[in-house]
Amino acid sequence: MDESRTVSALVAEAAVHLTPAERRVAEAVIDDPKLVAFGTVAQLAARSSTSGPTVLRFAGRLGFVGFVDLQAFVREQIADQLRPATERIRERPATDVVARTLTTDLDNVRTTLEGVDEAAFAATVGVLADRQRSVYVLAGEDSRGVGVVLATQLDLLRDRVTLIEGSSVRVSRQIAEIAPGDVVVAVDHRRYERWLLEAARRAVSAGAVLVAVSDSALSPLAEAAARVFVAGVRGVGPFDSHAGAFALVHALVAGVAAKLRRRAVGRLDAVEAAWRDGGDLVDHSPPKDERR
Amino acid sequence: MDESRTVSALVAEAAVHLTPAERRVAEAVIDDPKLVAFGTVAQLAARSSTSGPTVLRFAGRLGFVGFVDLQAFVREQIADQLRPATERIRERPATDVVARTLTTDLDNVRTTLEGVDEAAFAATVGVLADRQRSVYVLAGEDSRGVGVVLATQLDLLRDRVTLIEGSSVRVSRQIAEIAPGDVVVAVDHRRYERWLLEAARRAVSAGAVLVAVSDSALSPLAEAAARVFVAGVRGVGPFDSHAGAFALVHALVAGVAAKLRRRAVGRLDAVEAAWRDGGDLVDHSPPKDERR
DNA sequence: TCCTCCACGGAACATACGTTACAGTAGAGC
DNA sequence: GCTCTACTGTAACGTATGTTCCGTGGAGGA
Predict the structure, then answer these.
(1) What's the distance, Cα to Cα, between the start and end of chain A in Å?
(2) Across the interface, do A8 and B247 touch by the CB < 8 Å criterion?
């Protein structure tokens, strides 16, 4: 058995061939691997509302001979995880892209969020949660993904959120709508896009509050901004990483949601109801939903 | 029993009152705690060159009633260590959104990348780097940001990359173009979007290689997929986090870039030259450029 | 030298565990 | 409607495991 494979991967691979009862076992295993590491066949059967034999058949379906074999596999994995991270990393080849990405993006997330200025964060959340102000999200080509997430999630919490994109004509028209007091969140990395810088400056002169998410406190974007957040963007490949910027957006949106809780809940429920009534979503709900 | 105490501390405290044989058991326990977590009385006795009853007396000496009690204690400790930082920390007030996001997203990135199956990763990078195959990126509404990043960056490395989005008519038309051997990367979380699932299934029956990036190995998206990657998506606010999924995209893109280095460099240079000539970019290079 | 105490392990025991055989059941195909 | 197949839980079985009881051996003291 290849030790590099995680039990989730094995389950995923065999998922198609599982019977309904076996699938319930699989869900229990994924949900709480400790149950198979420390538990017994009977406990796993009870947790998944099945029977002993079904658990055994599940183990067999994954390629193990009996429950003890599966258990040994999971225990080995856990033992691996217990060893210090440094020791574990040394084992993987230095050329391993996944390992390098892991350390790099952990760094990016940490530096991004640890570098957040409390006052700036509170102030930014404040204006973003102010329903009197329109919100515009400006993102460079590289950072469009981050901008999309920010705009999409904010839009679910409040109205008057616009993602500015498209042709320069359309951008200009949208910029023209900006009123004093509105909020513009601009996301871009080096090398900065000229149109975005100009748009940001025009927004400022129109009286907007400019919030910059950039890769440097010295970026041209930061110069014009009232609030600046610096994202760690070091990448392992030829491109910058956006993991740090995503984490920042995550925090901002959570802050806004907390501030708007009363209002946002109703809005979210309405959106969800619409989706549900339209049958657009597939729940495929596990029996135990631990979601908040 | 005070749960905060480690088993080593308990042993040290009781060490004075231990008989010689019991001391050998203590040494074995300290040397390899996994032996008591996963092993049996007989194994621990053999390892310490003692007998079953001595192991039992040792456990009693530490204040436990029987071996199972000692074992439960050690297992509890291990479970604590495995638990993600977000849960371990929950006793603390953690009113600070930024701090909560930090621990949560570090967890998300770590679980996502540590859960990556090496073989699946290599295979996925392989097909994504195969210039004979067209690549299509399918993303749910929630995950559109991640999809955008993946499509954008891949498009800079190779041609024939398409982000499938828009009205259902347009989606259908794009799906129709999929040929056997093409690659479809589908990104979605619970609750899964119906159109996306159907599109993915149609792609599979058209002969495409489906790569799923989802929040569970048992998601309906994963069922049809040839390769599955599970992203940690735990969010601090009402929405899922995309930091983990993005880190995975980061790794995938870096892997493809490494594989295509020769070809990609030329392509990147050409794109960059076009931007530069058009005057679209502002360098504003900081004094120290750490870029490779 | 004999007695006493205590550490220690062998052996017996009850239990719980993994495993297997089997029967009941629901659904698909004809 | 009938048969066959696939799925699933009940019950029985053999074994390994934790635990207890008791005998052995050796050290210290009278």
Answers:
(1) 37
(2) no
